[in-house]
Amino acid sequence: MLEDNRIVVYDTTLRDGSQGEGLSFSVEDKLNLAKKLDEMLGLAYIEAGWPGSNPKDEEFFARAAAGELQLKNAKLSAFGSTRRANVLPEEDTNLRLLIAAKTPVITIFGKTWDLHVIRALGTTLEENLNMISDSVAYLKKAGREVVYDAEHFFDGYKANPDYALETLRQAHAAGADWIVLCDTNGGLLTEEVPGIISRVKETIPNARLGIHVHNDGDLACANTLTAVRNGAEQVQGTINGYGERCGNVSLCSVLPNLELKMGYQCLPEGNLKNLTEISRYVAEVANLSHNNQLPFVGRSAFAHKGGVHVDAVMKDRRTYEHIVPESVGNSQRVLISELSGQSNVLHKAYQLGLQMHKGDAEVKEVIEQIKQLENRGFHFENAEASIELIMWRTQPGYIAPFELRDMLVLSERRASSNEGLLSEATVKLQVAGNMLHTVADGNGPVNALDAALRKALVVYYPQLDAVRLTDYKVRVVNEDGTASGIRVTITSSDGHEIWQTVGSSTNVIEASWFALADSLEYALVYHLFKQNQPEASALQTV
């Protein structure tokens, strides 16, 4: 048995997680994710897929076996099912492919719910028991560590407890190293967990138990933690809770709860601080937006907006933070909006290194600007770069690196052209005492405007060559047909930093201009203020 305070973590993001709607990993993705999960978290097990079920998994396991995947901490597991009904184990293609994958661990699932045995498999209850026993014994004879996932165990137990427990007894007697209790439909209530696990421990007292929970009832984390409290030593889950339907239990919630609040050791010492980074990395590889509201690792997990909250957090962060954000690699954020008071602005000023104090005219000016802009449709919670610019512009000696004088944007469809709409933008800017007039075309009016703006500025600020617009979002602010207010949020990057800016208007081009201009102005003055330069007017041009 394992040490009392140690929990074995089994990640199934690459297999179970990939079954989530809208999520698909390439072979390269899976290889890179396995390496990152192993390196950053130091997990005990990584389940990578089902050999033979699809060409990608076949290629993955072939490349892993050929040496492309050298894991330092985790054991790689291949996943599959028990043998088919009325087929010898050595003649079952699934089992043979599992062995051929050459992983040190093999995980198989079997039916524990009599409903599934009769309706889904179309076989007898007795034959299902033989399928479980034969399959485990066959894999153990091949020298593999075997994890037995008791599919639908909790539903099976509630329908026919004696039979469900007998399936576990057969797997354990055949040599399974782990018996994992699965809430496959995700409808288990937390209050049911202790009593059921107690019966399991009475039935197979020497078995090492694991827990595998889906989140259809929004209780996956609670059910997992309760299972651990009642004897489960292995926890299966996915990063960010990815998975079929409502997803699997999220390791990003389970791990910090177990380590920081319940006193268990799940990862090598110090690795929990990598949790936020790996959460965002997996979302990026999955080509999904990272969920800001994720507990512990979400961008909003430690974001404070209410003035009373911020005032308290400034005095003692424990007042509104249940853990230290840095313990999971996250950080505290203070949001500024029309609801903000002076505490919010002062906290942001402190973070930016600006000398602002309660009652200062600059503080009141920032608050008043934000209220007026949000009344016009601006929204700053996801556009902190625009907030920072508002605050920097209140500082003595601040000189804007450029100023718009005139702007004209045209889109035209020509009958002689096969290129669709042609877009052209003209801008007239004041830069370093000079008037610049530039024209550029683009793939749409916003792209043309961006090109014209950069064409003018890059002559004076060559560092803007590195700045790229990475995301552009448009949202209707107030529904009034085609006359509705429009909010544009832009995400930009220079290859090192990422920032968001916002603009709003009834004209989408003007809204885009506000966000674009803020994006490039931020890129030019960011380092000056971050380095605590005395005046932004020290901005260097060529």
Beta-strand portion reads 15-25%
Number of E-state strands? 16
The oligomerization state is single chain
The rough form would be described as elongated
The CATH homologous superfamily of the largest domain is named Aldolase class I
In CATH, the architecture of the largest domain is Alpha-Beta Barrel
Calculate Rg over CA atoms: 29 Å
Mean pLDDT: 89
**Terminal Cα span:** 69 Å
H/I helix tally: 17
Family: Belongs to the alpha-IPM synthase/homocitrate synthase family.
Domain Pyruvate carboxyltransferase: 7-276
Protein name: Citramalate synthase
Catalytic activity: pyruvate + acetyl-CoA + H2O = (3R)-citramalate + CoA + H(+)
Describe the model:
The protein has 542 residues and is α/β, with parallel strands linked by helices. The protein folds into 4 domains: 8-285, Aldolase class I (TIM Barrel, Alpha-Beta Barrel); 303-375, no CATH class; 376-400 and 466-542, Double Stranded RNA Binding Domain (2-Layer Sandwich), CATH 3.30.160; 402-460, Double Stranded RNA Binding Domain (2-Layer Sandwich), CATH 3.30.160. 38% of the residues lie in helices and 19% in strands. The protein is built from 17 helices and 16 strands. It has helices spanning 27-41, 55-68, 93-100, 114-121, 125-141, 153-159, 161-173, 193-203, 220-229, 251-261, 275-285, 307-315, 342-352, 361-375, 384-393, 445-457, 508-530, and strands spanning 8-11, 45-49, 75-81, 105-111, 145-151, 178-183, 209-213, 234-237, 303-304, 333-334, 403-413, 421-431, 434-442, 468-476, 486-493, 498-505. The strands form 4 sheets. An 8-stranded parallel beta barrel has the order 1-2-3-4-5-6-7-8, surrounded by 8 helices. It has a 3-stranded antiparallel beta sheet with strand order 11-12-13, covered by helices on one side. A 3-stranded antiparallel beta sheet has the order 14-15-16. Helix 5 runs parallel beside helix 7 and helix 16 runs parallel beside helix 17. 43% of the residues are buried. The model is unreliable at 532-542 (pLDDT under 50).
